[in-house]
Design goal:
By secondary structure, the protein is α/β, with parallel strands linked by helices. It has eight helices and eight strands; from the N terminus they run αβαβαββαβαββαβαα. It has a domain of 131 residues: Glycosidases (TIM Barrel). 32% of the residues lie in helices and 17% in strands. The strands form three sheets. The protein has a four-stranded parallel beta sheet. A two-stranded antiparallel ribbon has the order 3-4. It is globular.
Length: 237
């Protein structure tokens, strides 16, 4: 190869200019702006009224007892209240004549010890002379009503014992029991330690809710004139 050709090739190589490739920078898309959420209002809760129902540990005293037989109950700091029970027949010996001695004694002891008091008066179980809670004079007043016995009394078997009670809606029965409740309220409503006074409603054999309800007993209730309206009306009284 001639020297002239070699020189020409060399010159071509020397004249080559390297042009760098343009670097493409991708545009970063702008972030989509987010709106600041409006805070949800949180209404201030209304203050809850103080419950009128006492809470805590209560000692359920035996019926007609607790007036000194167990003094530790009153001094025990883990006991918040005393549940006091007495039969109507032991409380109201004759119509309008009350023996308050037991309830007063227990209530005073509980109050002095700082305990709440529940007074529970047993009205069920029939005549107190026959083992129930109801005064004999109340049962006699119901018997004197000008109504058939089948419409004012109900008889059922209570663990082998025949028990006769006034039907819950009987007007004379309700009149006497309402007077009892009124007298209890008049005597104890001003005592802040006495929280609840109970005179049961549908209680066939104790102060607890209990209604004979076998199929045969239900039929007997209907025969005595039971209706839901009568029961509800009696409960409202």
């Amino acid at each position: 190869m001639s020297r002239a050709i070699i020189s020409t090739i060399a010159a071509c190589f020397l004249c080559v200019t390297v042009i760098p490739l343009a670097t493409t920078t991708a545009a970063t898309p702008g972030a989509t702006p987010r709106s600041t959420p409006t805070p949800r209002p949180h209404p201030t809760p209304l203050p809850r009224p103080a419950s009128r129902i006492p809470r805590g540990v209560f000692c359920l005293l035996p019926n007609g007892e607790g007036n000194g037989h167990d003094p530790l109950v009153y001094s025990d700091p883990d006991v918040d209240g005393i549940s006091v029970r007495q039969n109507w027949g032991d409380l109201e010996l004759a119509e309008g004549t009350f023996d308050w001695s037991f309830l007063d004694t227990v209530t005073e002891m509980a109050t002095a010890a700082g305990k709440a008091v529940l007074l529970r008066i047993g009205t069920g179980g029939g005549d107190i002379a026959l083992g129930g809670n109801c005064p004999t004079w109340v049962m006699n007043a119901v018997a004197a009503e000008p109504l058939p016995a089948s419409q004012k009394f109900y008889t059922f078997n209570d663990n082998g014992r025949s028990v006769t009670i006034a039907v819950f809606w009987d007007p004379v029965w309700l009149e006497k029991k309402t007077a009892l409740i009124t007298a209890l309220g008049a005597r104890y409503s001003a005592n802040p330690a006495v929280k609840i006074i109970v005179a049961s409603f549908a209680n066939a054999n104790s102060e607890d809710w209990a209604v004979p309800h076998t199929p045969a007993e239900v039929s007997a209730w209907f025969a005595a004139g039971y209706t839901s309206a009568k029961m509800l009306d009696a409960g409202r009284q």
